[in-house]
# Entry
Amino acid sequence: MFGDPEELRRRMGEFAEQMQGAQKVAWADNAIKLAVDMTVAGINRLNLQGNADQQADEIRRAMGSLFPEAVTLVREAREGFGTGS
# Structure
């Protein structure tokens, strides 16, 4: 029915590796999406006032606290995916 047991074992191992790879990709995708969502939500909560320069300064200040958190999520996602740098 299944043929050679060694062939079946090899194929099951390959399948397990493929599933593990798919899980890593899904986790990385979710972490990156979370980082983007966090950044967008944080920016959307700002009550921007003043002229364009003042608004840009306020966004830059917000990004100073939001961005490091987002970068951490993306870095961890990349490392989990095996592409850490």
Observations:
- The chain has a mean pLDDT of 82.
- The helical segments are 5-44, 52-81.
